[in-house]
Amino acid sequence: MRNIYLLLGSNLGDRHSYLREGALLIEREIGPIEKSSSIYQTASWGNTGLPEFLNQALQVSTSLSPRDLLFTVNAIEKSLGRERVQKWGSRTLDIDILLYENEIINEPDLVIPHPLMQERRFALAPLCEIAPDVVHPLIRKKIKELLSELSDDLYVQVESDNNNMPEDINKTTFDIDLSYLNDIADGNAEFIIDMIDIFMEQTPIYFDQLCKAIEEKDWKVTGDVAHKIKPTLAFMGVEAAKEQMAEIERKARNLDHTEEIEEQVSQLKISCESLYAGLQKIKDDLQGKG
Fold first, then answer.
1. Are 178 and 236 within 8 A, CB to CB?
2. Residues noted as catalytic
């Protein structure tokens, strides 16, 4: 049996149903699903005017050859109503072959690894959840490294059943909730430490970019950077901070009370800096157990 990674995506009709039916057909026609990521809500890539997608990554064991795998994937897509009318268009179900073991294939109708996966947050985020240490056979970097270096800032966020807003989105101190990170790490302390390191390295850089844009009154860049910080805060479970950042993004994009943004960012920056000590303690505890 060979180890492969697939990415499912849907932005038409009952998207959850298409993902479920696709997974069932994959299990029946391709092989057993060993791991599945959370479902992610993602902005349309390549054609941003389309409806949002739901995406999910799967690790599958298969006896199919790469060529037979492609044939089977296309058949599953077609059986669920996929029509290839427009590049980067809407679809009932799309199945991308991201990785097939460590094989490298470059043929007119079959390219493995997927040639654009390293440029797409909607592919790397779910893949990193189930395979952070898998190495891209061409780029020779781990998936978690590719994700940490990614410049794509299109919206990608784990779907949540809890749509309630935090009780107080104006909190100036934040509790750290790493339950989501612990879930996807599945006991892998090294992965948690790596993610904490990335957060502590990247977040100050993002805030510097945000402060510079505000100083220059470049509200478009302000909104773009605030949008980019949101999933980073959510990943660490700092929901109240994420909601404050969403409010900053809204004001910047709508040019609504922009005079309030500088003070809000200043307070939020101080509050986020207070997280670093707590995260460092968690990291030290994990390293002490290693």
1. yes
2. 82, 91, 94, 96
